[in-house]
Amino acid sequence: MSSVKQKILIVDDEPDIRELIEYNLKKEGYLVYSASNGQEGISEAKRTRPDLVIMDVMMPKMDGIEACRIMRTMNEFKSTFMVFLTARSEEYSEIAGFNVGADDYIAKPIKPRALVSRINAILRRNSLPEEVTENKLEILDLVIDRETYLVYKLGQKVVLAKKEFELLYLLASRPCKVYTRDVILKNIWEDSVVVTNRTIDVHIRKLREKLGEHYVATVKGVGYKFDA
Q1: Predicted TM-score of the model (pTM)
Q2: Structural domain ending residue among the three candidates 126, 155, 174
Q3: What is the extent of the structural domain holding 148?
């Protein structure tokens, strides 16, 4: 871990949950802060500027979905990792979380070792291969060159259609981040009125055919991510 301690904010209305998570994250060397509802969470986040926020969904005064939505509108939190923590297992709850900008979703009851492992993995995303230049990504065994719209896998050129390339570049630019279908449509197809979810599925299938199955993962009911 870096000599500069990373900061984590826990927002949950259950004191026992906050204490359990705080204890285990402090053992890992993180600086940990806490709040008991969404409103307090936003205020504490402004004060502490955390690298990652663990947020319960169901809370009094302001729930986690609304708090995350508000924070994502603030420039200082656009790249902050947001992880939802909830006892609710309904698929629509997960979709709502990802739609407002969540990076991951962890279900209660808390398993401390599993939670710490997940948080470590999320924060490691910052150290994954990043852009070498403004227009080139090098990640895993791929080089994705935006100037030429070419992809090289283990040094071998792979030719993609324009939208296939743009979809791959979007996913690879934030490894492990889940992109919802709505976000993909807005970024890749913008003004087109004839594009459907089926269009995205077809382009994902073509990417897997040309590059291999393991680069792009499906998050059921939500969207897709580059699996680094």
Answers
A1: 0.62
A2: 126
A3: 128-226
